[in-house]
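lol forgot to send this yesterday, sorry. struct tokens for the thing we talked abt
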């Protein structure tokens, strides 16, 4: 497998996950190194719920301060909702959704989501893992990706 093909496969795996690379980019230098990429992928494909929660939380915490704020929630939910045909005032609908979501997930009622809030909510309701937008691949494209990439381990190690 050549580099181009791998790139293409990765693109198709991650096409719905636009925040993906922030989750991969552990040292926040704006680039995803090979080791970060491999590490990110292994969470993607083989990660435990714990690892996936950490990963998604990092993706959702847009400014990296350790909390998912109301503004960040608004921003992300707006992004994921705009694809649908919208009502008269889409912002109002999003605001309602932000309130509902935060109310549901903010366990200590400080108006923002810490990882502890998020973790508790997800353990109760696994669907909340991707509450603020898709950041993990769907099982079908994941399977296709694995089938292609792990066909010949020797080739992959050259990448
Ligand atoms: Ca934040
Ligand atoms: Ca909180």
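and heres what i got for the seq, position by position
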């Amino acid at each position: 497998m050549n580099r181009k093909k791998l790139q293409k496969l990765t693109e198709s795996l991650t096409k719905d996950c636009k925040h993906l690379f922030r989750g991969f980019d552990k040292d926040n230098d704006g680039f995803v190194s090979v080791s970060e990429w491999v590490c990110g992928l292994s969470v993607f494909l083989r990660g435990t719920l714990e690892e996936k929660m950490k990963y998604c939380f990092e993706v959702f915490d847009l400014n990296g301060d350790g909390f998912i704020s109301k503004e960040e929630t608004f921003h992300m939910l707006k992004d994921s909702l705009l694809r649908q045909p919208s009502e008269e005032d889409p912002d109002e609908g999003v605001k309602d959704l932000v309130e509902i979501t935060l109310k549901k997930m903010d366990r200590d009622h400080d108006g923002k989501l810490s990882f502890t809030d998020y973790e508790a909510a997800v353990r109760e309701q696994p669907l909340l893992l991707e509450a603020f937008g898709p950041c993990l691949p769907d099982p079908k494209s994941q399977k296709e990706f694995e089938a292609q990439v792990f066909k010949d381990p020797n080739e992959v190690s050259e990448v």
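The domain at 48-136 is CATH 1.10.238.10 (Recoverin; domain 1). anyway ping me if u want another try
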